[in-house]
């Protein structure tokens, strides 16, 4: 961000709509990714993302600057996503969390980077296996894993967002990796 968090927040609070648009443009893609990582449903993720930015606008006066603006925004996105899932679980028994994630940081799964239809099909199959694996992780493991491994946040930031210790985040990520590896190995064997 070109301007500081505090300057941006102050401009928005003074009624500068363009500054709010700047905030939305800065965070919309990552907020959408966070929401999608919880729901695995594009329509739900879009709805939740809109709710996130409405909540940000309503609650901006509560932002004290104790954490970075991005941490605050991503916490709202996580909370709104979790609220959505809780609502779904109340109305649909057995609804589980699923996530969208890149299994490797440098592996781009976007269709734009595909050179051949076979590659796209293989990537889609890999993503489907990964979705199924992620749906079996506990909520806390998934949250720690997505925020650190997908969103690239450091463990200290994630520990603040999750209201837990850095050691706990490390442990959650380690257990998530171990469990995910075992789940994926089993799914690949079944798939073949």
Automatic annotation (TrEMBL):
It holds the Pfam family Sigma70_r2. The keyword Transcription applies. Keywords: Sigma factor, Transcription, Transcription regulation. Residues 129-180 form the RNA polymerase sigma factor 70 region 4 type domain. It comes from the Bacteria. Residues 23-91 form the RNA polymerase sigma-70 region domain. GO terms for molecular function: DNA binding; sigma factor activity. SUPFAM superfamilies: Sigma2 domain of RNA polymerase sigma factors, Sigma3 and sigma4 domains of RNA polymerase sigma factors. InterPro entries: RNA_pol_sigma-70-like, RNA_pol_sigma-70_dom, RNA_pol_sigma70_r2, RNA_pol_sigma70_r4_t2, RNA_pol_sigma_r2, RNA_pol_sigma_r3/r4-like, WH-like_DNA-bd_sf. GO terms for biological process: DNA-templated transcription initiation. NCBIfam families: sigma70-ECF. Belongs to the sigma-70 factor family. ECF subfamily. This is Sigma-24. It comes from Saccharicrinis fermentans DSM 9555 = JCM 21142.
